[in-house]
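seq as requested:
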Amino acid sequence: MQERTYPCLVRDMPEDEYHACAEISKSGLDMIRKAPRLYHWHHLDPEGEPLVQTASMELGSYVHAATLEPERWASHYVRAPKFDRRTKAGKAAEEAFQIEHEGKVIVPADMYEHACRSAEAVREHEYAGQLLSQGQAEVSAFAKCDETGLGIRGRIDWLRDSGSLVDLKTTKSAEMRRFWYSVRDFRYDVQAAFYLDLARRCGLDSNMFYWIAVEPRPPYLVAVYWASDDMIAAGRVKYEEDLRSYKACLESNKWPGYRESGQLTMEAPR
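struct tokens:
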């Protein structure tokens, strides 16, 4: 594991550098909960495969950049024109465009439009705009778990001056009931508890965790939610269990697969 002084906050850390850090993140704990072998394959096995971004994940990263870091979005991201790759002239124009913008992120035209419109909708939303009115984007936090001694990390989407944490989520539906199911299915309760505890370990006075949910398709609807105390407490129980499981896997070098086996019925498994 990389030598680091714990706890610490690192501002302006490049995203690639953050993701290369050895400390385990909330997304890593999600894999531990699902099947430890998945985490080992994607992060520890020399023959394993890196995670591949889906189209929705890629769009989400563009929305994050356009919303939370508009200056970097304007300087490092460029909209890709449409080229007719069936012709030599079209291929030559595409190659010239790539050379001209070397070092920048070339974004498909439709995704660029969705990212810009989503960012505009968030900034114009009464509550979301207030949450992002002061603070800093993409703050990396590192600490050690007191119980397990494991290094943990998180990248705070938006750290308010008050210490409150704000997370931007692109979602198919920002409506309250549908987003609640996203919280359940994607373990956002674990994220809230993990990040709040991590921030406190780093000396921040953090007691509120907000989600800004935005639909990255027209009409670009936005909603703001926050985690209740009981949701945070439940998420804490889960992530602490996951850390203990991860430590047991490291110590035994055994990485089990899926835990569930049994009869399937018409009712969805819990």
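The first helix runs from residue 15 to 19.
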